[in-house]
């Protein structure tokens, strides 16, 4: 019996990925480190420091120093806040999904690779009464980010359940890989520019086109799980 739904945040609850991608692209380009926007969508779910190390190794052949990582991530976060204040908003259909999950008596747990305090601060106002702060896993909680299973295993622990008692809602291939590695049935909601096949190849059990589509099907999915 399903007892909880574990939600990613960026690209699932918030339409924030375009701002993240632009902030990453501008920050890294200013350092002479280039990556396509699609690549940043593929990296979604990693901790910020992991993303920086990956790009440093590819371009410079080394990890970034701790000081570099902290400085670069602070610059990226500052730019994200500027963009997010103008553009980011709750994902269409997200509240409808959350209300249905609550009405079914299921726990709601956030499992995100993000460390953006601005979005955490908006949760109560955008989704009142939905989330318990004690049932959130963020970039500050984990040693290993997605695609490692640690974030979702920690989410199960915070909910006090086993993998077969949960469903994950993700939008990113690395997040899907993390949830699958934790042994949890995973719904991918393709809210970005990647092809559905990328999410299927990552191991998603179901791929849907939007959170509105998930809202229409969530009760049936939970009943069949």
Task: Write up what this structure looks like.
- With 225 residues, the protein is α/β, with parallel strands linked by helices.
- It folds into 2 domains: 4-16 and 89-224, HAD superfamily/HAD-like (Rossmann fold); 17-87, Putative phosphatase, domain 2 (DNA polymerase, domain 1, Orthogonal Bundle), CATH 1.10.150.
- 51% of the residues lie in helices and 11% in strands.
- The protein contains 10 helices and 6 strands, in the order βαααααβαβαβαβαβα.
- It has helices spanning 17-29, 37-43, 48-60, 66-87, 94-103, 117-126, 150-159, 173-181, 196-202, 211-224, and strands at residues 4-7, 107-111, 136-137, 166-170, 185-189, 206-208.
- Strands 3-2-1-4-5-6 form a 6-stranded parallel beta sheet, with helices on both faces.
- α9 (196-202) links the parallel β5 and β6 (206-208).
- α1 (17-29) packs across α2, α5 (94-103) runs parallel beside α10 and α8 runs parallel beside α9.
- The longest helix has 22 residues, at 66-87.
- The chain starts with a strand and ends with a helix.
- The mean pLDDT is 93.
Task: Give a short overview.
With 225 residues, this protein is an alpha/beta fold.
Q: What tags apply to this protein structure?
A:
225 residues, alpha/beta, Rossmann fold, DNA polymerase, domain 1, 2 domains, 6-stranded parallel beta sheet, 10 helices, 6 strands, 51% helix, 11% strand, globular
Helix and strand layout, with pairings?
Elements lengths: L3 E4 L9 H13 L7 H7 L4 H13 L5 H22 L6 H10 L3 E5 L5 H10 L9 E2 L12 H10 L6 E5 L2 H9 L3 E5 L6 H7 L3 E3 L2 H14 L1
Parallel strand pairs: 1-2, 1-4, 2-3, 4-5, 5-6
């Amino acid at each position: 019996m399903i007892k909880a739904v574990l939600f990613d945040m960026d690209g699932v609850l918030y339409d924030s990925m375009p701002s993240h991608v632009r902030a990453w692209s501008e920050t890294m380009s200013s350092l002479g480190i280039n990556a396509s926007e699609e690549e940043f969508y593929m990296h979604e779910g990693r901790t910020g420091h992991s993303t920086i190390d990956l790009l440093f190794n590819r371009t410079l052949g080394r990890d970034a120093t701790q000081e570099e990582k902290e400085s670069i991530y602070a610059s990226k976060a500052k730019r994200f806040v500027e963009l997010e204040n103008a553009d980011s908003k709750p994902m269409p259909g997200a509240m409808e999904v959350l209300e249905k999950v609550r009405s079914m008596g299921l726990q709601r747990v956030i499992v995100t690779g993000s460390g953006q305090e601005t979005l955490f601060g908006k949760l109560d106002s955008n989704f009142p009464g939905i989330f318990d702060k004690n049932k959130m896993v963020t970039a500050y909680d984990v040693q290993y980010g997605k695609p490692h299973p640690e974030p979702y295993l920690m989410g199960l622990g915070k909910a006090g359940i086993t993998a077969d008692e949960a469903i994950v809602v993700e939008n990113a291939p690395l997040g899907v890989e993390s949830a699958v590695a934790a042994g949890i049935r995973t719904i991918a909601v393709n809210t970005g520019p990647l092809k559905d096949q990328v999410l299927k190849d990552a191991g998603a059990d179901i791929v849907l086109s939007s959170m509105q589509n998930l809202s229409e099907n969530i009760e049936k999915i939970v009943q069949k799980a």
